[in-house]
Amino acid sequence: MAFEFARLGDMALSPSRVRRKYEAVALPIWLEGLALLEMLCLRASPVYWGFGVPPGDGSAVVVVPGFMLTDLYLTEFRLWLRRMGYKAYSSGIGINAECPNLLIRQRLTLTIEKARKTTGRRVHLIGHSLGGVLARAVAAQMPDSIASVITLASPFQGIAAHSSILRIAELVRSTIHDRHGCAVLPECYTAACTCAFLESVAGEFPSSVHQTAIYTRSDGIVDWHVCSTGDPSIDREVSSTHLGLAVNATVYEIIGQRLAAAQEAGYPKTRPRLRKSA
To answer: Closest by alpha carbon to 154, among 196, 212, 69?
Structure first.
């Protein structure tokens, strides 16, 4: 099946062409229907039952949903993380169709602070699609609280997506402005916005945070070129659909390995406490 995904993706989109940022791209969106097959294969995978996956150390992992989605579809993934030995948290952001600045400040930050207080250690973030972009922004804004960030097909290098997704995004943008008015910037939910969210994403990623970028060339939603860093020590290519990344056995295996790598590198460690003077 892995071969088929890669071959079908290459038929619809030649990987030799480097896409420009912020454009509508002709992507094989029809492949996304195969995400159901990935879900069925996951249950039959040894990884799903914990075989071959390094055990967790009880660290907190906050999972952030993608564009127009909620925490609900990531329930299976969070349950798997808990079986592996992590304390998995829902993001608490509701529907991911709001000003990213507001989602971070009013909701996601609260979840992260709660997770860190409960475990006493820095928190791991895993974000699917737009959720991964939010995760990277949070890591840039509060690196002392974040141990690692793992993104799943997250377009943090620019906006290059299927035209239907861009049309939905424009509707969301209009709704945001109708709901908040002058409380958000005029260019909110566009690449031209000057908010702290986009500045955080565009800026240098903190070296104190372990990072992983998982992407698929057969992505039918966003252009895979804008979902990777270009660093082979960070990027991981898998055979999957965009939606299927949340239920893909290979992705689960990589996540287990990368969380363990962050543990070994000491990323979850808290800052040393200052001794009280006598």
So the answer is: 212
Taken as a whole, the chain contains a residue count of 278
DSSP 110-124: HHHHHHHHHHSS-EE
Alpha carbons within 13 A on the beta-carbon side of 196: 11
Q: What's the sign of the alpha-carbon dihedral 64, 68, 73, 77? A: negative
In the structure encoding, which two tokens stand for residue 93, read together? 């952001």
How far from each other are the two terminal CA atoms of the chain, in whole angstroms?
Answer: 66
Q: Residue 124 and residue 139: Cα distance in Å, rounded?
A: 10
Which residue blocks in the chain are alpha helix, DSSP H?
A: 2-12, 35-43, 75-84, 100-103, 109-119, 130-141, 163-180, 196-202, 249-264
Distance CA 66, CA 246 (A): 10
**CATH number at 2-13+22-262:** 3.40.50.1820
Q: Report the candidate in 89, 138, 86 with the shortest Cα–Cα distance to residue 262.
A: 86
The full set of domain ranges for the chain reads 2-13+22-262
Crossing angle, helix 249-264 and helix 35-43, to 10 degrees? 70
Question: What is this structure's pTM?
Answer: 0.88
Q: What is the pLDDT tens value at each position of the chain, 278 positions in all?
A: 443 454 444 434 434 344 445 578 888 899 999 999 999 999 999 999 999 999 999 999 999 999 999 999 999 999 999 999 999 999 999 999 999 999 999 999 999 999 999 999 999 999 999 999 999 999 999 999 999 999 999 999 988 999 999 999 999 999 999 999 888 888 888 888 888 998 999 999 999 999 999 999 999 999 999 999 999 999 999 999 999 999 999 999 999 999 999 988 776 544 444 344 33
